[in-house]
Amino acid sequence: MKVIAIVSTAGGTGRTTLSAALAVLLARRGRQTVALDLDPQNMLGAHLGIDGFAPQGIAHALLDDTHAWHAHTWRNAEGVLFVPYGAVSLAQSARCDARLAAEPRWLATALAQLDLPRDGVVLIDTARYPSQQAEQAVGCADLVLCVTPPEPAACATLVVRLAALRSGGAQLRIVVNRLNPARDMQRDVLAMLGAALGDGVPLVQRVHLDGALPESFARGTWLFDDAPHSQASHDLHGVANWLDTWLADAPRKPTHRDGERA
Protein backbone atom coordinates (compact mmCIF):
# COMPACT_ATOMS: atom_id res chain seq x y z
CA MET A 1 0.00 0.00 0.00
CA LYS A 2 0.99 3.63 -0.44
CA VAL A 3 0.59 6.39 2.14
CA ILE A 4 -0.31 9.93 1.10
CA ALA A 5 -0.14 12.72 3.67
CA ILE A 6 -2.30 15.75 2.89
CA VAL A 7 -0.96 18.75 4.77
CA SER A 8 -1.21 22.52 4.84
CA THR A 9 0.93 25.20 6.43
CA ALA A 10 -1.96 27.63 6.89
CA GLY A 11 -5.51 27.43 8.12
CA GLY A 12 -8.58 27.58 5.90
CA THR A 13 -6.99 25.90 2.90
CA GLY A 14 -9.77 23.37 2.25
CA ARG A 15 -7.43 20.49 3.10
CA THR A 16 -10.06 18.30 4.80
CA THR A 17 -12.61 18.82 2.01
CA LEU A 18 -9.98 17.91 -0.56
CA SER A 19 -8.91 14.83 1.44
CA ALA A 20 -12.47 13.52 1.54
CA ALA A 21 -13.10 14.21 -2.15
CA LEU A 22 -9.90 12.45 -3.24
CA ALA A 23 -10.63 9.45 -1.02
CA VAL A 24 -14.04 9.02 -2.69
CA LEU A 25 -12.73 9.57 -6.21
CA LEU A 26 -9.94 7.02 -5.72
CA ALA A 27 -12.42 4.52 -4.27
CA ARG A 28 -14.60 5.01 -7.34
CA ARG A 29 -11.58 4.18 -9.47
CA GLY A 30 -11.40 0.79 -7.78
CA ARG A 31 -8.71 1.57 -5.20
CA GLN A 32 -9.06 0.13 -1.71
CA THR A 33 -8.91 3.41 0.16
CA VAL A 34 -8.45 4.30 3.81
CA ALA A 35 -9.05 7.89 4.96
CA LEU A 36 -7.34 8.56 8.29
CA ASP A 37 -8.15 11.67 10.30
CA LEU A 38 -5.03 12.81 12.14
CA ASP A 39 -6.39 16.22 13.04
CA PRO A 40 -7.78 16.87 16.55
CA GLN A 41 -10.55 18.91 14.89
CA ASN A 42 -12.05 15.47 14.06
CA MET A 43 -13.89 16.83 10.99
CA LEU A 44 -13.01 14.37 8.21
CA GLY A 45 -15.89 12.03 9.06
CA ALA A 46 -18.46 14.78 8.50
CA HIS A 47 -17.06 15.36 5.01
CA LEU A 48 -17.23 11.64 4.26
CA GLY A 49 -20.91 11.47 5.18
CA ILE A 50 -20.62 10.09 8.72
CA ASP A 51 -23.35 11.52 10.94
CA GLY A 52 -21.97 13.33 13.97
CA PHE A 53 -18.42 13.36 15.33
CA ALA A 54 -16.85 9.99 16.08
CA PRO A 55 -16.29 9.81 19.87
CA GLN A 56 -13.54 7.19 19.66
CA GLY A 57 -10.62 6.94 17.29
CA ILE A 58 -6.90 6.81 16.82
CA ALA A 59 -6.33 9.44 19.52
CA HIS A 60 -7.60 7.00 22.14
CA ALA A 61 -5.00 4.46 21.09
CA LEU A 62 -2.43 7.16 21.84
CA LEU A 63 -3.96 7.68 25.26
CA ASP A 64 -4.32 3.99 26.15
CA ASP A 65 -2.18 1.13 24.81
CA THR A 66 -5.05 -1.30 25.33
CA HIS A 67 -7.33 0.67 23.00
CA ALA A 68 -7.69 -0.93 19.55
CA TRP A 69 -8.10 2.03 17.20
CA HIS A 70 -9.11 -0.21 14.29
CA ALA A 71 -12.19 -1.30 16.27
CA HIS A 72 -13.67 2.17 15.74
CA THR A 73 -13.49 2.45 11.96
CA TRP A 74 -16.36 3.28 9.64
CA ARG A 75 -17.07 2.55 5.99
CA ASN A 76 -18.99 5.18 4.09
CA ALA A 77 -21.41 4.68 1.21
CA GLU A 78 -18.57 4.98 -1.31
CA GLY A 79 -16.61 2.12 0.28
CA VAL A 80 -13.96 4.33 1.90
CA LEU A 81 -12.72 2.93 5.21
CA PHE A 82 -12.58 5.87 7.60
CA VAL A 83 -10.41 6.05 10.72
CA PRO A 84 -11.50 8.97 12.96
CA TYR A 85 -9.25 10.93 15.27
CA GLY A 86 -11.83 10.84 18.05
CA ALA A 87 -13.11 13.49 20.41
CA VAL A 88 -10.53 14.56 23.00
CA SER A 89 -10.27 17.26 25.62
CA LEU A 90 -7.51 19.87 25.61
CA ALA A 91 -5.60 17.91 28.24
CA GLN A 92 -5.99 14.67 26.30
CA SER A 93 -4.83 16.41 23.13
CA ALA A 94 -1.66 17.51 24.91
CA ARG A 95 -1.06 13.92 26.03
CA CYS A 96 -1.48 12.72 22.45
CA ASP A 97 1.07 15.28 21.26
CA ALA A 98 3.52 14.18 23.95
CA ARG A 99 3.15 10.52 22.94
CA LEU A 100 3.75 11.31 19.28
CA ALA A 101 6.80 13.41 20.14
CA ALA A 102 8.24 10.57 22.23
CA GLU A 103 7.55 7.91 19.57
CA PRO A 104 8.29 9.27 16.09
CA ARG A 105 7.37 5.93 14.45
CA TRP A 106 4.08 5.47 16.28
CA LEU A 107 1.91 6.14 13.25
CA ALA A 108 4.01 3.97 10.95
CA THR A 109 3.61 1.08 13.38
CA ALA A 110 -0.16 1.66 13.55
CA LEU A 111 -0.47 1.73 9.75
CA ALA A 112 1.39 -1.57 9.53
CA GLN A 113 -1.69 -3.15 11.13
CA LEU A 114 -3.78 -2.33 8.04
CA ASP A 115 -4.33 -5.25 5.70
CA LEU A 116 -4.35 -3.45 2.35
CA PRO A 117 -3.21 -4.78 -1.04
CA ARG A 118 -0.17 -3.38 -2.78
CA ASP A 119 -2.35 -1.06 -4.85
CA GLY A 120 -4.31 0.18 -1.82
CA VAL A 121 -3.86 3.69 -0.48
CA VAL A 122 -4.06 5.48 2.87
CA LEU A 123 -4.91 9.20 2.73
CA ILE A 124 -4.01 11.05 5.94
CA ASP A 125 -5.67 14.38 6.69
CA THR A 126 -3.37 16.01 9.21
CA ALA A 127 -3.39 18.91 11.61
CA ARG A 128 -1.82 22.09 10.30
CA TYR A 129 1.93 21.77 9.70
CA PRO A 130 4.04 22.00 11.80
CA SER A 131 2.39 19.78 14.40
CA GLN A 132 3.16 16.40 15.91
CA GLN A 133 0.38 14.83 13.82
CA ALA A 134 1.65 16.32 10.57
CA GLU A 135 5.25 15.33 11.36
CA GLN A 136 4.19 11.71 11.91
CA ALA A 137 2.21 11.65 8.67
CA VAL A 138 5.00 13.19 6.62
CA GLY A 139 7.51 10.80 8.18
CA CYS A 140 5.70 7.66 7.00
CA ALA A 141 4.31 9.00 3.72
CA ASP A 142 5.31 7.98 0.22
CA LEU A 143 3.81 11.22 -1.12
CA VAL A 144 3.05 14.53 0.57
CA LEU A 145 0.39 16.79 -0.97
CA CYS A 146 0.63 20.30 0.44
CA VAL A 147 -2.58 22.27 -0.06
CA THR A 148 -2.43 26.05 -0.27
CA PRO A 149 -4.74 28.82 -1.44
CA PRO A 150 -3.11 31.38 -3.76
CA GLU A 151 -2.98 34.00 -1.02
CA PRO A 152 0.16 35.90 0.02
CA ALA A 153 0.32 34.83 3.68
CA ALA A 154 -0.45 31.16 2.96
CA CYS A 155 2.09 30.90 0.17
CA ALA A 156 4.75 32.74 2.18
CA THR A 157 4.24 30.28 5.04
CA LEU A 158 4.55 27.37 2.63
CA VAL A 159 7.84 28.67 1.23
CA VAL A 160 9.23 29.04 4.77
CA ARG A 161 8.24 25.42 5.61
CA LEU A 162 9.32 23.96 2.29
CA ALA A 163 12.75 22.68 3.38
CA ALA A 164 11.28 20.95 6.44
CA LEU A 165 8.57 19.30 4.37
CA ARG A 166 11.10 18.03 1.85
CA SER A 167 13.37 16.63 4.56
CA GLY A 168 10.86 13.85 5.31
CA GLY A 169 12.09 11.92 2.28
CA ALA A 170 8.72 11.57 0.55
CA GLN A 171 7.86 13.05 -2.80
CA LEU A 172 6.33 16.50 -2.31
CA ARG A 173 3.75 18.11 -4.58
CA ILE A 174 1.70 21.27 -4.23
CA VAL A 175 -2.05 21.60 -4.85
CA VAL A 176 -3.29 25.17 -5.23
CA ASN A 177 -6.86 25.23 -3.93
CA ARG A 178 -9.65 27.81 -4.21
CA LEU A 179 -8.13 29.54 -7.22
CA ASN A 180 -10.07 32.54 -8.51
CA PRO A 181 -8.58 33.62 -11.87
CA ALA A 182 -10.53 36.88 -11.76
CA ARG A 183 -8.27 38.12 -8.98
CA ASP A 184 -5.08 39.63 -10.38
CA MET A 185 -3.40 39.32 -6.99
CA GLN A 186 -3.80 35.54 -7.04
CA ARG A 187 -2.11 35.29 -10.43
CA ASP A 188 0.81 37.33 -9.10
CA VAL A 189 1.05 35.13 -6.00
CA LEU A 190 1.07 31.99 -8.16
CA ALA A 191 3.90 33.38 -10.23
CA MET A 192 5.92 34.15 -7.10
CA LEU A 193 5.17 30.72 -5.64
CA GLY A 194 6.30 29.01 -8.84
CA ALA A 195 9.55 30.97 -8.78
CA ALA A 196 10.15 30.08 -5.12
CA LEU A 197 9.46 26.38 -5.68
CA GLY A 198 11.63 26.08 -8.78
CA ASP A 199 11.71 22.83 -10.72
CA GLY A 200 12.05 20.55 -7.69
CA VAL A 201 8.48 20.78 -6.38
CA PRO A 202 5.98 21.08 -9.25
CA LEU A 203 2.34 22.03 -8.86
CA VAL A 204 0.19 18.93 -9.37
CA GLN A 205 -3.05 20.73 -10.07
CA ARG A 206 -5.06 23.84 -9.45
CA VAL A 207 -8.55 23.50 -8.01
CA HIS A 208 -10.78 26.46 -8.78
CA LEU A 209 -13.05 28.16 -6.28
CA ASP A 210 -16.67 27.03 -6.57
CA GLY A 211 -19.47 28.51 -4.48
CA ALA A 212 -21.50 25.31 -4.92
CA LEU A 213 -19.00 23.27 -2.89
CA PRO A 214 -20.31 24.21 0.60
CA GLU A 215 -23.86 23.71 -0.66
CA SER A 216 -23.00 20.15 -1.73
CA PHE A 217 -21.46 19.52 1.69
CA ALA A 218 -24.60 20.80 3.41
CA ARG A 219 -26.73 18.42 1.32
CA GLY A 220 -24.41 15.48 1.96
CA THR A 221 -23.56 15.16 -1.72
CA TRP A 222 -20.45 15.65 -3.85
CA LEU A 223 -19.74 18.61 -6.10
CA PHE A 224 -18.54 16.31 -8.87
CA ASP A 225 -21.96 14.63 -8.84
CA ASP A 226 -24.04 17.79 -8.45
CA ALA A 227 -22.12 19.81 -11.05
CA PRO A 228 -20.04 17.31 -13.04
CA HIS A 229 -19.16 19.80 -15.77
CA SER A 230 -17.97 22.59 -13.47
CA GLN A 231 -14.34 23.66 -13.52
CA ALA A 232 -13.82 22.61 -9.90
CA SER A 233 -15.23 19.12 -10.62
CA HIS A 234 -12.90 18.83 -13.58
CA ASP A 235 -10.00 19.91 -11.35
CA LEU A 236 -10.81 17.37 -8.63
CA HIS A 237 -10.97 14.58 -11.20
CA GLY A 238 -7.64 15.81 -12.54
CA VAL A 239 -5.96 15.50 -9.15
CA ALA A 240 -7.53 12.05 -8.61
CA ASN A 241 -6.38 10.89 -12.05
CA TRP A 242 -2.86 12.10 -11.32
CA LEU A 243 -2.86 10.26 -7.99
CA ASP A 244 -4.23 7.09 -9.57
CA THR A 245 -1.42 7.11 -12.12
CA TRP A 246 1.15 7.90 -9.44
CA LEU A 247 -0.09 4.99 -7.32
CA ALA A 248 0.33 2.63 -10.25
CA ASP A 249 3.86 3.79 -11.05
CA ALA A 250 5.45 4.92 -7.76
CA PRO A 251 8.19 2.74 -6.28
CA ARG A 252 7.89 1.59 -2.69
CA LYS A 253 9.53 3.92 -0.18
CA PRO A 254 12.35 2.22 1.79
CA THR A 255 11.47 1.56 5.43
CA HIS A 256 13.48 1.22 8.63
CA ARG A 257 13.04 -2.53 8.34
CA ASP A 258 14.80 -2.44 4.99
CA GLY A 259 17.75 -0.75 6.65
CA GLU A 260 17.85 -3.41 9.36
CA ARG A 261 17.91 -6.20 6.76
CA ALA A 262 20.65 -4.47 4.84
TrEMBL record:
Span of the signal peptide: none
SUPFAM superfamilies cross-referenced by the UniProt entry: P-loop containing nucleoside triphosphate hydrolases
PANTHER family: SEPTUM SITE-DETERMINING PROTEIN MIND HOMOLOG, CHLOROPLASTIC, SEPTUM SITE-DETERMINING PROTEIN MIND HOMOLOG, CHLOROPLASTIC-RELATED
Entry keyword Transferase: no
Keyword Cytoplasm: no
InterPro entries: Cellulose_synthase_operon_BcsQ, P-loop_NTPase, ParA/MinD_ATPase
Organism lineage string: Bacteria, Pseudomonadati, Pseudomonadota, Betaproteobacteria, Burkholderiales
One protein family per Pfam: CBP_BcsQ
Source organism: Paraburkholderia metrosideri
Protein name as it appears in the record: Cellulose synthase operon protein YhjQ
Keywords of this entry: ATP-binding, Nucleotide-binding
Source organism, top-level taxon: Bacteria
